[in-house]
Design brief:
Blueprint (H helix, E strand, L loop, with lengths): L2 H11 L7 H16 L4 E4 L3 H13 L11 H10 L4 H7 L6 E3 L4 H12 L3 H9 L5 E5 L6 H12 L3 E6 L12 E4 L5 H24 L1
Parallel strand pairs: 1-2, 1-3, 3-4, 4-5
Helix pairs in contact: 1-9, 2-9, 3-9, 4-5, 6-7, 7-8
């Protein structure tokens, strides 16, 4: 399936997201550029959005809708690296799109929060992981999460591209993201309910681009 098919199907299932088409397409282009250049996607959010960040990383780091078999040259290198087990490893590993959920580093986030500032923990993580050519995806249902906004600031300073996912108003994320996907909802749980199909669509589009 082509990338646009997934977006067309999303909007057919969720007509309320029609006004998000351009921002979803913009987010998809940022992700394609990131992974095509060898960059890593950093993802962050709070509470349910931190769980969504984990979900996104899980869809990118392994097969989502497809199996993503390894290229033959990688299989050959694995076989050469260990003739006993390399062939079996190569047959079962899948192509991955490198992504990290910043909220999953519990020891680091809590240590930095305790020693320095919880509000800057994601910013510090971006400072450590971030590189020009990479991308940051931040989820905030209000668009006002201070730790996510601080992470965007560091990402921009490093030359990374930024994608925001938020609710109808966009909050303080407006003007701070290269692509801002504002779903048409205001209540936290309703925003999150629409974020899930949007990021599933993005993951499917990116997978189709690299592993069609």
């Amino acid at each position: 399936m082509t990338e646009s098919v997934f977006l067309d199907e999303l909007l057919a299932r969720y007509p309320a997201l029609a006004d998000c088409r351009q921002s979803i397409e913009a987010g998809s282009r940022i992700l394609v550029d990131c992974f095509a250049s060898g960059g890593t996607l950093l993802v962050c959010g709070n509470g349910g959005s931190a769980a969504d960040a984990d979900h996104i990383v899980g869809e990118l780091m392994k097969g989502f809708l497809g199996q993503r078999p390894l290229p033959e040259d990688m299989r050959a290198r694995l076989a050469a690296a260990d003739p006993e087990i390399g062939v079996g490893i190569g047959a079962r590993l899948q192509g991955a799109l490198p992504a990290i959920n910043l909220a999953s580093a519990t020891a680091f986030v809590t240590a930095f929060g305790n020693d320095v500032s919880a509000e800057l923990a994601y910013a510090q993580a971006v400072n450590g992981y971030g590189r020009k050519g990479g991308a940051l995806l931040g989820l905030s249902t209000s668009g006002n999460a201070r730790n996510v906004l601080a992470a965007f600031c560091v990402a921009r300073a490093l030359g990374m591209r930024t994608i925001g996912m938020t609710g109808r108003g966009g909050g303080r994320m407006n003007g701070r993201c290269d692509a801002l996907i504002r779903v048409p909802a205001d209540k936290t749980h309703e925003v999150q309910e629409l974020h899930l199909p949007v990021y599933h669509c993005l993951c499917a589009m990116i997978e189709a681009h690299f592993f069609s």
